[in-house]
Amino acid sequence: MGEGSEVDASRIKIFTSPAAIMAAITGGALAVSAILNPVRVTGLSLCPISHLIGIECPFCGMTRSFVSITHARFSEALDYNLGSPLIYGAFVWMLFASIRDLRLGQYKDIPSTPIWLYKSWLTVTIPVFAWLFWSRWLSNLF
Asked: Helices in 1-142 by DSSP H: which ranges?
């Protein structure tokens, strides 16, 4: 089996590493949002919860919002989902961190984020999505 199998095994480790998987997921989502035309996704709704029970979930509008952000339609993006810029920013950061880790040869761990950035992001994101949960779901029950 010799030298060729060692090269194949190291390539498999790279492609199945957490950094490569994270880069594929975040990069894929951002690439799709760049490919889609914001005018054509205006009426698009992919949320199964919304289709089943007729109430928007806190994440409804995220796809349309990602497309709008990518095409610099920021006010439109906020209309679709107020929390989407926070998730979009996290996707951009994780793509950057994944590529950084792959370039540095760090294949074993999930790409790292500075703790101050992570805590700051959570401090803003949790209240925004709690409010979306309240305004879209719980307020309909009362």
From this structure: 2-15, 18-35, 48-53, 62-70, 74-80, 84-104, 115-133, 139-141
Cβ neighbours of 140 (radius 10 Å): 12
pTM across the whole model:
0.83
Consecutive sets of 10 residues in the chain, 142 residues long: mean pLDDT of each?
54 76 95 91 78 84 93 94 96 95 85 92 96 85 69
Residue 7 belongs to what domain range? Answer: 2-141
The token pair that represents 58 in the structure block: 């806190």
Task: Indicate the number of domains in the chain.
Answer: 1
Asked if residue 7 lies in contact with residue 86, where contact means CB atoms within 8 angstroms, the answer is no
